[in-house]
Amino acid sequence: MTARQITCLxxxxxxxxxxxxxxxxxxxxxxxxxxxxxxxxxxxxxHRTRIAGHGLSMANIPGxxxxxxxxxxxxIETDNDIPGRYDSWLDPAEKxxxxxxxAAQAHAAGNYAFVYIAGMExxxxxxxxxxxxxxxxxxxxxxxxxxxxxxxxxxxDAFWISKGxxxxxxxxxxxxxxxxxxxxxxxxxxxxxxxxxxxxxxxMTHFDGWWDTWASFDKYTVAEFKNRTGLDAFTDLExxxxxxxxxxxxxxxxxxxxxxxxxxxxxxxxxxxxxxxLIPEIYPGIGEDAVVVxxxxxRLYAVSDAIAHEYSEGGYTAAGREPIDWFAYMTGMLSFRAxxxxxxxxxxxxxxxxxxxxxxxxxxxxxxxxxxxxGTNPYDARGHVMSGSNDYETRARVYNWISEHxxxxxxxxxxxxxxxxxxxxxxRDYFTxxxxxxxxxxxxxxxxxxxxxxxxxxRTLADFKGTTLLMPESRIxxxxxxxxxxxxxxxxxxxxxxxxTGLYSTQRQxxxxxxxxxxxxxIKHIGSPGLEYYNLAHKEFNASAYTDNWVGNACTQALKIFxxxxxxxxxxxxxxxxxxxxxxxxxxxxxxxxxxxxxxNYTGIIAEKNANQIPQKDVEILFMDAGPEDNIxxxxxxxxxxxxxxxxxxxxxxxxxxxxxxxAVVWLEKKI
Length: 672
Description:
alpha/beta, TIM Barrel, Immunoglobulin-like
C-alpha cells in the first residue's frame, strides 16, 4: 500500500470517527482507545515528567543528555521542527537522523524524548531574497480572513520570526498539504521518538488584527463548510453574532475541524509507532480563547495522549501574578486535570522574564509549587521561550525533590465526599462571558473555603458520586446531560443551580420552561454566588492577601455564606476539615487510599514586587474517619516528611500544622 493510500484510508477512518464525535462529543473516539489504555496508567512515563526544552542537532545531543541528568529532567523536549520549516518540509532527512539518534540516547540514559513540530504554521528562512518560499510555491494553501487578507507574517508580528523570513498559516483543509504533513509525522514517529509535541494547531486569530476575524476563509475551508452545512461562509452568517444560528454553526465547524485534525495526527503517528504520543501544545485555557482559535482542550483530551498547556492567568509569568491570579491559574490547571480523565497535563508556563524586583529562583519555586499541588507536570524554560532555564540550580534542586515525592503528587487523586462543580462546555462555547466568571467564582469559593470539590464534565457526570452538584450558568444542556442529572436527582443528589442554568435550548434559544423543571424536588436555585464572588474577589481579595489581614474584607463574609449554603443542602458531611485563612488554596483527595490535602499559600505575594509568602501558622486539620492509633503526616514543599502530634476525640483525629511557607501536603496514615 502506498503512503497516499494509507493516508486516504486513515482519513476515511477519522471522518467516520469524528462524525461520532460531533454526534456525541462526550465519547472517547474508537481510534484513541489503544493509546488511552497506556497513557491513563498512572505508572506511564507521561505522568512522571519534569520537563525542559532543548534545541536539537546531531552535535548537541551529548550536551542535552548531560544537562538533563544534572538537573533531574525526566521528559526531554527537543526542538527540531520538520513540517514548520520549509527547508525541512522539502527535505527532512538530516533532521530525521538527529531525531532518531536523540531517541536512542535518551532511552540509553533511562529517559524519554519528544520532538517539537509545528501545526499549521510554516516559516521560510530568508524568503525575501529567495525565488521559492512556502507561499510563493503554494499560495492557495494559506489561511485568509473574510476580506481576503492572507495569513502571511514577518518579523514585526512575532519574536520567533527573523528578519526576511516568511511565516504562513495553512488551511487544514488544503488536501495536498494535509497529506504531506501526515506523511511527515509518520516519518518522525518511525524514528523511535517517544512523542510529537504539536505546537498550536489553530485557526489564525491570535496575531494583532486577527482576533475578531473568525478565520479562515480560504477556498478549501469555505468549501468544506458548505459541504457540511449547505451554507456560504461569506454571505450566510454574521461573524461574532451569537444570536445568529448560522454563526454558531461556523463556530462549531471550526472547533470540529481542529479536533479532527488532531485526531488524524494521532492516528497517523500511532499507525507506525503505537508507543509514540501526540502532545498538542495549547495556550487557550477554559475561556473564550478556546472558541476563537478553535482549540478546545476539553475536546482535545479525547483525541490526544497528553496536552501541554502554554497557560497563564493574570501576569504572563509567575513573577507577575497577583494572589487572585494564582487562584485563577489553579482553577485552570484543576479543570485540565478533570478534562484529562487519567491522562497527563503538562504545564509550559513561564516563571520569570527579567522582573527586576523578583529573584528567578523565587518565581520558579512558586510556579513549580502551584503546578504540583494541582497535579500537573512542570516544565522549566528561560524567559518566554521553550528552552534553557532562568536558574539551573533551582531547577535541579526542585526537580530532584519532586522526583523523590512523585507518587504523592502524580498518583491519581480520587474523590472522597466532594461537592461537585459542573463545567458545561457548550455553555462556555455559546455564553462565554456569562459562564466563565460564574464557574471561576465558584472555584475560588471552594478553594478558599477549603471544601472538598470535584470538577464534573459531561463525560464524567455519570460517575459522580457526590451528594451536591453546583451548576454555574450551565445554560445549555443536551438531552444526555438532562437524563444524567435526573438520575443524580433520583438517587438523592442535591443540584444547586445558579444564574440561568437550563434556560436555553442547544441552539441558544431562550426557553419558556427550564429543561430541569422535572427535577423540582431535587433542585434548588441559589442565585449567582459564583459571578458575584468573581467580581468581588477581583476587586477586594488582593489587598488583604498582601498583608494576610482579612479583618473587614467582604470576601470572608461571602465565603462564610457560601459554605453555609452548600453544607445546609448537603446530605453528607465532609470527612476532612481544614481551618485556614482564604489566602491558601486547598485540594482534598484520596491518593493511594489515603485522604490527602494539597495546600498552596499565596498570602504576601505582590506581582513584580514580592514572591515570598507570609507563613501560615494557625492551620488546623481534622480527619473524621480516623482512629486514635492513626498518624498524620506532613510534607512541606521542598522539605522532608514529618509525623505530627495529634489529638483524638469523638470528632476524629486532629492536629495543628507547622507553619506553611509556599505549600505543603498533609495526609492520614492509617494504622494497619
